[in-house]
Amino acid sequence: MSTGNRNYLSGRALAAAVALPVVLFAGFAYAQVEGQPTPGGIGLPATVTEVGRETQAFYNALLLPIITFIALSVLGLLLYVSWRYNEQSNPVPSKLTHHTGLEIVWTLAPILILVAIAIPSFRILAHQVEIPESKLTIKVTGNQWYWSYKYPEDQGGGFGFDQLMKPENELKDGEPRLLAVDNEAYVPVNEVVKLQITANDVIHSFVIPAFGVRMDAVPGRLNETWFKAEKEGVYYGQCSKICGKDHAFMPMAIRVVSRDKYDAWLADSKKKFAAAESPTRLASSEQAR
Predict the structure, then answer these.
(1) Same domain, 106 and 243
(2) Is the distance from CB of 184 to CB of 254 less than 8 angstroms?
(3) Structural domain of 226
(4) Is 217 within 8 Å of 204 (Cβ atoms)?
(5) Structurally, how many domains does the chain consist of?
(6) What is the mean pLDDT of each run of 10 residues along the chain (289 residues)?
(7) 233 pairs with which residues across the strands?
(8) Same domain as 149, residue 20
(9) What is the pTM of this model?
(10) CATH number of the domain that 50 lies in?
């Protein structure tokens, strides 16, 4: 390999080594819109729960540096081997086939990396699956292709409703296309909410990125998860399982409000949904079809 080619490869390697971390870490400073995707956004979405922050910190502070280091190390090793051991620079190849020390290193290094990842990940996983005492339980059922919510009577509810995507011609100012819904689910801010998630037909997946919530909705099975939103606002998500032809049009929306506003919504919703539950469901099913 000529000196010019070697310098060219070295320059490319240096540029890649400088550009990759800049591109990766620039995303952290990019302003994300809470509750919905940001056009042109880089990095993980903004989160408003403790579990979400722990998950993102685990990724940004531990996984991303490890991923970057491994990627750059492998790239550097490939470039070095291509330069040092090509046929022109090394016409007589070595007969060495085994190196005990090297084999020990490349066996232990991945093990140590996985152990370093596993220890904090188990703690975060335990925080996600151990549901604290909740003040509100909502049953969420996935259907083709909409969501159904039930608020228990013993917690001030006693009603249910369906949640379908709003058509574009019904969107109001500020409502995102393909994410806004006809009936938003309400929850109180700074209170633990337990979700019981199932499905009527096929497997769906209930995902609210801003809450750090992702749980499969499986027919015949009741899965549970939880969140505690710390900021008022509307938070959107979408089904993340390919569940049929309208999978891309199956969003969910949860509005986090103060306890007073939540109590007022409960009172209004009892009148709106409790008496008209069956007609609402029939109309929702027809609209979904």
Answers:
(1) no
(2) yes
(3) 136-288
(4) yes
(5) 2
(6) 48 53 50 75 86 92 92 93 83 81 90 93 92 93 95 89 93 91 95 96 95 94 95 94 93 95 93 62 42
(7) 256
(8) no
(9) 0.77
(10) 1.10.287.90
